[in-house]
Each structure stands twice: as structure tokens, then as C-alpha cells.
UniProtKB/TrEMBL annotation:
Belongs to the 3-hydroxyacyl-CoA dehydrogenase family. Residues 18-204 form the 3-hydroxyacyl-CoA dehydrogenase NAD binding domain. NAD(+) binds at residues 22-27, 45, 110, 115, 137, 163, 298. Keywords: Fatty acid metabolism, Lipid metabolism, Mitochondrion, NAD, Oxidoreductase. It comes from Coemansia reversa (strain ATCC 12441 / NRRL 1564). Its EC number is 1.1.1.35. SUPFAM superfamilies: 6-phosphogluconate dehydrogenase C-terminal domain-like (SSF48179), NAD(P)-binding Rossmann-fold domains (SSF51735). The lineage of its organism: Eukaryota, Fungi, Fungi incertae sedis, Zoopagomycota, Kickxellomycotina. InterPro entries: 3-OHacyl-CoA_DH, 3-OHacyl-CoA_DH_CS, 3-OHacyl-CoA_DH_NAD-bd, 3HC_DH_C, 6-PGluconate_DH-like_C_sf, 6PGD_dom2, Mito_3-hydroxyacyl-CoA_DH, NAD(P)-bd_dom_sf. CoA binds at residues 61, 68, 137. Pathway: Lipid metabolism; fatty acid beta-oxidation. This is 3-hydroxyacyl-CoA dehydrogenase. It comes from the Eukaryota.
């Protein structure tokens, strides 16, 4: 125990430079929480518009945090926001952004090929001791890392954050069979350095939280489709009857319906031990909403209008 603490205390200061790939809901949140703890962050996306949207998410969330930290002190609030944003550099040049990174966290769309392409390129351009991490919700960590060299795979890990990142305290640290113990220790130390609580978990579909959450979400949609109750009444029931902060439809909209569909489709088709499991079969309602571009809060419409 003592040894683990000592080694994390040392490595904690090692990861000062963090590059986050993807400035969507999750990437901007990860960048924000690292910047709030004075890490030097580079946030990358494919174009300036996406980066500006990410910056908008960060500013809005930082203002909420600042208001709580410094109630009635507008100047201190502004300083807090500006200080955190000052630790974030926005970039569309992924290669350059990783050249001196200690940690690269990928948070782009939930698509295996997209993630593999990013790591094949960036793993060569990052320093050869950098930790490579994916925020994937559902894809096997070993599969994302499969095209990399063994030395890169030993530094490859899952760092699974939760939405909204600034508020949710958990990060699942997902270890494949090939990852080095040092990588796991350093990742755990990083998670603690940004004020989050790690839960280390094996590389299995859904890790811990999503393995339990997705069946709940899908069963909620099936309950709605069967006409048992309205979305609003199911949400009210789970909030007031089970003490959940959000009902299942509020949560689906919050996570993003495209992301939910990517997750269940992937598992239904080829999830280890989950393939063909009816719990993970998509549903008509989910398919229709995603097809129509109604992806939830981020697109202004999902099960509800925003
Ligand atoms: N940034 C900063 N602070 C935020 C925030 C944000 N984006 N969103 C909420 N907060 C803070 C608020 O400032 C407030 O702080 P205090 O309590 O300290 O005043 C607190 O969170 C509560 O917010 P609200 O009062 O506005 O609303 P709420 O009580 O409904 O809480 C919530 C909002 C925290 C999002 C809560 O509804 C919740 O926990 N919902 C469930 C979220 C969840 O389950 N997330 C996991 C999704 S699954 C996932 O992420 C994994 C995946 O791979 C798909
Ligand atoms: P999002 O749609 O909000 O953002 C994705 C971003 O990635 C977009 O800004 C897009 O432009 C960018 N992007 C796409 N390809 C890119 C590339 N090649 N290089 C750089 N940027 C690129 O999605 P999100 O909700 O932030 O989810 C991102 C990842 O996090 C997914 O793997 C998802 O499964 C996972 N995740 C999501 C949640 C959630 O609740 N939404 C929670 C935990 C994990």
C-alpha cells in the first residue's frame, strides 16, 4: 500500500501535459477538469467550429463551478474561469498537439475504425513513454489497441469518464491483458490528480457502469414502446420511486441517442458474451430517433425537446 502511494505521488507530477482528441461533450469535459487542476491541456478537433463549440461547453460549465466556489464575487468567478481556460490550447493539428504529451485521451465518436486510425497515427508522434487512453463507452480496449506495436499496447488503457464530466466523480480505469502495471498506476494517479475516484476494471463489454446501465436504458425504451406508460411517467417513477437523479429518458437524451445506438448495436452484433442477447437489441423507437437526427440534448431534440 505504502509503495503504491509513493509511486503514484511521483508519477502524479509526471503527467502535466494532456492532449484530448475530440472536443464534444466528453472531450471538452475531460479538458476542463484537467485544466482546473493546472494540467497543460491541448484540445483537438477536426475543425475550428467544433473547437469553438467545445470551448463554449467549457465556459458554461466553468461558470457554474465558479458561481459555487465564489458566490457573490463576480471578479473571482471570472478569474477562475479565465485561469482554467488559460490552461487549454485549442488545435486542429493532432500530430503537433501530441508531440510532448504525457497523456493522450481520445474522446471522438464511438467507432472502432475512427479510434484505431487516430491511435495508429498519434502513437508514433507522441513521446515513447506517453500514456495512450481511450474514453470509449463500449469498445474493447484491446481491439482499439490491436493495430499498435507491443510497446504502444503496454501504454494503452481505458479512461472512461462520465457525463457531465465536471460533476461525475468516477473514472473507470480499464486494463487490457497487455497493459503494463506502471501504466495502470500512472493512470490511477492521473485520475486522482484531477479530483476523481478511479475504479479499476477488466476489459469486458461495458466495464462496470455501462454493463448495468445500458440494459436499464433499453428496457425503459421497450416499456415505452409497449405502451405501459409515457416517457414522462416512467422518468417520474424512476426518480421518485428509485431515487435516480434523472429518469431513463432524460438520461438517454443526456448521453446522446447516437452513442447509445452505437453501443448496443456493437454488443448485439459482436460483444464478447453479449452477442445476440435480447437486452442489447436496438428498438424501433431508438432507430427512428437516431435516423431523424434527434440525438438528445446535444441536437435539441430526442425523447424530449430542448
Ligand atoms: N458542469 C459543472 N457542474 C454541473 C454540470 C456541468 N455540466 N452539470 C451539473 N452540475 C452541477 C450543478 O452546478 C449542481 O451543483 P451543486 O449541487 O453543487 O449545486 C449539481 O451539478 C446538480 O445540478 P442541478 O441542480 O442543475 O441538476 P441535478 O440535480 O439534476 O443534477 C446531474 C444534474 C448531476 C447531471 C444529475 O442529474 C445526475 O447525476 N444525472 C445522472 C447523470 C449520469 O448518470 N451520468 C452518467 C451517464 S452514462 C455515461 O456517462 C457513460 C457512457 O459511456 C454513456
Ligand atoms: P460528441 O458527439 O459530443 O463529440 C465527438 C467529437 O469528436 C466531435 O466534436 C467530433 O467533431 C470529434 N471528432 C470526430 N472525429 C474526430 C477526429 N478524427 N479527430 C478529432 N476529433 C474528432 O460525442 P461524446 O458524447 O463526447 O462522446 C465521445 C466519446 O466518449 C465516445 O466514444 C463515447 O462513447 C464516449 N462517452 C460518451 C459518454 C456520454 O455520455 N456521451 C460518456 C462516456 C463516454
Amino acid at each position: 500500500r505504502k509503495h503504491a502511494f509513493t509511486s503514484s505521488a511521483i508519477t502524479q507530477s509526471d503527467i502535466r501535459r494532456v492532449t484530448v482528441i475530440g472536443s464534444g461533450q466528453m472531450g471538452s469535459g475531460i479538458a476542463q477538469v484537467a485544466a482546473m487542476k493546472q494540467h497543460e491541456v491541448t484540445l483537438v478537433d477536426v475543425n475550428q467550429e467544433a473547437l469553438e463549440r467545445g470551448k463554449g461547453y467549457m465556459s458554461k460549465s466553468l461558470k457554474r463551478v465558479a458561481k459555487k466556489k465564489f458566490p457573490e464575487d463576480a471578479k473571482a468567478q471570472n478569474q477562475f474561469v479565465e485561469k482554467a481556460l488559460g490552461h487549454v490550447t485549442l488545435s486542429t493539428n493532432a500530430s503537433k498537439s501530441v508531440s510532448n504529451a504525457g497523456l493522450v485521451v481520445e474522446a471522438v465518436v464511438e467507432n472502432l475504425k475512427a479510434k484505431q486510425n487516430i491511435f495508429v497515427k498519434l502513437a508514433m508522434e507522441a513521446p515513447d513513454n506517453a500514456i495512450l487512453a481511450s474514453n470509449t463507452s463500449s469498445l474493447p480496449i484491446a481491439k482499439i489497441a490491436a493495430p499498435l506495436t507491443l510497446s504502444q499496447r503496454k501504454r494503452f488503457i481505458g479512461l472512461h469518464f462520465f457525463n457531465p464530466v465536471p460533476q461525475m466523480k468516477l473514472v473507470e480505469v480499464v486494463r487490457s491483458d497487455e497493459v503494463d502495471q506502471k501504466t495502470v498506476d500512472d493512470a490511477v494517479a492521473f485520475v486522482k490528480s484531477i479530483g476523481k475516484t478511479p475504479a479499476v476494471c477488466k476489459d469486458t463489454p461495458g466495464f462496470i457502469v455501462n454493463r448495468l446501465l445500458l440494459p436499464y436504458m433499453m428496457e425503459s425504451i421497450r416499456l415505452l414502446e409497449s405502451g405501459v406508460a409515457s416517457a414522462r411517467d416512467i422518468d417520474t417513477a424512476m426518480k421518485l420511486g428509485a431515487g435516480y437523479p434523472m429518469g431513463p429518458f432524460e438520461l438517454c437524451d443526456y448521453v446522446g441517442l447516437d452513442t447509445i445506438k452505437f453501443i448496443v448495436d456493437g454488443w448485439y452484433k459482436e460483444g464478447a458474451g453479449l452477442k445476440g442477447n435480447k437486452l442489447f437489441e436496438s428498438s424501433k423507437k431508438l432507430d427512428e430517433l437516431v435516423q431523424a437526427g434527434s440525438l438528445g440534448v446535444k441536437s435539441g431534440k430526442g425523447f424530449y425537446d430542448y
